[in-house]
Amino acid sequence: MDKKMVAIAIIIIAVIGVGIYGYNAYVSSSESGTITIYAAASLAKQMNATAAEFKKQHPNVDVQIQYGGSSDLISQITQLNKPVDIMASADYGLIDKNLIPDYTSFNLQYARNELVIAYTDKSKNSSQINSANWYQILNQSDVKIGIADPNSAPAGYRGVMMIQLANSYYNNSNIFNDLIASNCAITSQANGSGYVINSPSNLNPTSKIVSRPAVSDLMPVLQSDSVDYVLVYKSDAEQQKSSGVKYITLPGELALSNTTYESTYKNYKLKQFSDTTNKSKSITLTPIVYGITVLNNAPQRDLAIEFVELLLSPEGNSITQSTFQDPIVPAIATNGSTNIPQSLLQYVKQ
């Protein structure tokens, strides 16, 4: 092929490339509609940043996100039939248990977090607390603790179960009773090699414990000096460091970020009790892994899949890292997953 033909071929390829780019840009800019996302409160910064990027690529698409406790949000889908496109849960297991197969066909584990104990310089005895003595500091009579509601937020039931697990970790049978059972209506019973924790709808806490519906609601309580220490996710604490929030990390088994300890976690369960249904629901302790799905009856299913595709892409992973959560690359499809959208498979390990 002579030089003239090579030049013509290069021009043709360039024109085709520009045409494809222009077509894709046109399609993105011409798409319109409203995506509705239900997401765990701890995902607020991650989802807001992803939505902002998605909006740049799809200027005519509106993204509406409702944040809250994952259990509460999923109940709105299953009990109130809310028209939702995407559900992102702080406990991936809630999607498997409550939404597959009737409401969705797949569930992707896409990010990790860990439990920490956050405080400020005004917190009582904050100069003394560390990863070894935290439960002793929290047990002091003048110290107030903030927890998310175990009946609505994964951070809440994980925090309560972690404290029960701490009994075994530190070989101290009094930690759970001192911090939880003596200060609210939550109780715990031994069950073989593990424990079953009962969490009534009315926690009836003493002045030592302050409970809020979602983990993100705890930061304002801490920063207003209404409590001394709060059990939150690391990302929540990191995002508020510029406001004076500090935190201690927990030993690996108690931080709940490592799947290495999953066989131990399976021995710890919490029963949630509902006033509206008069039924209890059992939840097993799991590592802090976020799950995401597109609902079967999503009103904007195609756009929702594009949003999840952005979230799982290298660009989305960078956003996740910037909000102090650890992306899982590639994302992992849970065992019950089927019919994963074709465009997502490039980012998923099955």
Structural notes for this entry:
- The protein is an alpha/beta fold and 350 residues long.
- 37% of the residues lie in helices and 24% in strands.
- The protein has helices spanning 3-30, 44-57, 70-80, 92-98, 134-138, 154-169, 175-181, 218-223, 234-239, 252-255, 262-265, 301-312, 314-322, and strands at 33-40, 61-68, 86-89, 108-112, 115-119, 145-148, 187-191, 194-199, 209-212, 229-233, 246-249, 268-273, 280-284, 289-294, 326-333, 348-349.
- β7 and β8 (194-199) form a beta hairpin.
- The radius of gyration is 23 Å and the shape is globular.
- It starts with a helix and ends with a strand.
Task: Characterize this entry briefly.
This protein has 350 residues and is of the alpha/beta class.
What does the secondary structure layout of this molecule look like, with pairings?
Layout: H1 3-30, E1 33-40, H2 44-57, E2 61-68, H3 70-80, E3 86-89, H4 92-98, E4 108-112, E5 115-119, H5 134-138, E6 145-148, H6 154-169, H7 175-181, E7 187-191, E8 194-199, E9 209-212, H8 218-223, E10 229-233, H9 234-239, E11 246-249, H10 252-255, H11 262-265, E12 268-273, E13 280-284, E14 289-294, H12 301-312, H13 314-322, E15 326-333, E16 348-349
Helix pairs in contact: 6-7, 12-13
